[in-house]
Amino acid sequence: MSETLEFQAEARQLLQLMVHSIYSNKDVFLRELISNASDALDKLRIASLVDKDLDADTTDLHIALETDRSARTLSVRDNGIGMSREDVVGLIGTIARSGTAELLRKLKETQDGTGSPELIGQFGVGFYATFMVADKVTLTTRRAGESTGTRWESAGEGTYTIEEVEGLPPGTTVTVHLKPEDAEDKLFDYTAEWKIREIVKRYSDFISWPIRLTTERVGEDEAVVSEIQTLNSMKALWARPRAEVDEAEYVEFYKHISHDWAEPLETVHMRAEGTFEYEALLFLPTHAPFDLHMRDGRRGVQLYVKRVFIMDDCEALMPHYLRFVKGVVDAHDLSLNISREILQQDRQIQSVRRKLVKKILTTVRDLMTAAPEKYTTFWTEFGRAVKEGLLEDPDNRELILDLVSAASTHDADAPTTLRAYVERMKDGQKDIYYMTGDSRSMIENSPHMEAFRSKGFEVLILTDPIDEVWVDQVMQYDGKPLQSIAKGQVDLDAGAEKSEAEKQEEETQREHFGPLLGWLGETLADQVKEVRLSARLTTSPACIVGDTMDMTPTLEKMYRAMGQEVPHVKRILEINPEHPLVLRLQAAQAAGKDETEVAELLYGTALLAEGGELADPARFARLLADRLATTL
Ligand code: ADP
Predict the structure, then answer these.
(1) 493-524: per-residue pLDDT in tens?
(2) 214, 66 in Cβ contact below 8 A?
(3) Which atom of ligand 1 is least distant from the CA of 32?
(4) What are the structural domain ranges in the chain?
(5) In the CATH scheme, what is the homologous superfamily, with its name and number, of domain 3-230?
(6) Given the CA of residue 139, which atom of ligand 1 is nearest to it?
């Protein structure tokens, strides 16, 4: 009873891309199949430890490769965990990861629409890679503990057939029916022993289960003898001294554990001896996975105990903000059936985690000087995630701040580090100035920037949503307070001694504008909590600022978007005592005229200038039009 089913739309599109892929290195399909088989063996071993009643034979876990030259097939067989019928439909016929649609859209945007290999690789198409070399793929599988098996077959074009079968061995066999058009090309002869041997050696040597190849040769008496050979050395890469590992071996290992097809950006190999022995082999990827900022994104440090795989995504070893770090930690003194919960509590694991985090962060810091272009790649890809660490990991705050790069008014093209900012600070400048907002242009053109620009103070331009949050928590860097230019009072002349004449002038100004400030404060009482004279404006008549401890409007919006109730924060209106509009308004108010509408307009323009939203745009437009009409 065979059924024909359709691939889910996203899966179908991804398959299409794979079938027509121009990916030059087709050999990797075998790496992917072996990788899956190896994972399936790990899973069965763990399952049999956890579930003593599971009827599974784990005495000879291995991967077997078989070729049939005349039928032009290659099979990869494992006696691992296997899949149920639902597993096959769900795992092979569907792609359930959020963000797939987005990824496909990006793939289609690449010039020729065939998809860039890096993007495909980032996604980790795994099993589908077989369709680069196959015109048909058959998969038979039986899940550990179940008696009925499943046979799945597809030509990679929209549909597959699936049926129940009895009498299958436990585990999974994938049979690749090689494309006839590659038959003449020796390079693509995946039935040749040398070819298979070469691929396994190059990509899968470190796999910890034996990868066996059955070959046949004609013996002396003309009889066909079959031989079984193990192709991989099974040596754990992380356990070997660094000097003895080739760069290429690290790269292939990285690809195996990360499902990434690109090379890693940086490799960290460390070993600790003493009371708690462990080895760690960690990698910084070159690209952020497309789902880095999604809830169900994959992450990646695996835990081994004495060479034996224990678990994926070991969150006890790596904090969330470093979720993109891939690799393996092999701890020697843990029990083989340790649980996630116990790991989280384990003091030694906590200490390992602290060391790993330090090592990753200092590795990045070293890149800043040793390989600036690598650092730039790193920060562009992972900076947003790393900044989460400013909130999550107060112990390493200074170290993380050392890594932060941000746009700045100093250079329109290149971001700056905080360190470089501090080195450029002017004599007498005490604070590190920044402004947060939705976009660079909005911040650069906001009225808050005026005095800073005219006096030549550098301002950091922070536009990541996470920036709104960390700047509130991180009070200072290198002993210098972080100060928003849109919050609190600014006094850019602080430090400079004021002359008597200047003090006198300020006093007069305060007296002169006192009644106007009072009247504006009453008139706009629903909108602002205070009206005061500004020291930050040169050309605009007014701007709106927050109190030092207040939430910014963007942050307020973010909380609302996340469904959190936050009180609306009233801010402060600052007016420019030198602007003609303010001067005339002062005169009119002193003469007893009712200029309520002008007050509203003044507030409205200040709000618009910072990119804010008017509560009643229609009213604002009407008031403005009426005023303009009277001036013409
Ligand atoms: P990936 O390996 O990147 O998750 P694949 O498309 O290669 O993606 O495989 C999808 C899923 O199918 C795997 O995560 C695994 O759960 C299951 N799978 C694939 N191959 C096997 C196998 N040989 N044995 C058991 N499960 C498998």
Answers:
(1) 765 667 788 788 888 888 899 999 999 999 99
(2) yes
(3) 7
(4) 3-230, 237-377, 404-484, 507-547+562-631
(5) Histidine kinase-like ATPase, C-terminal domain (3.30.565.10)
(6) 23
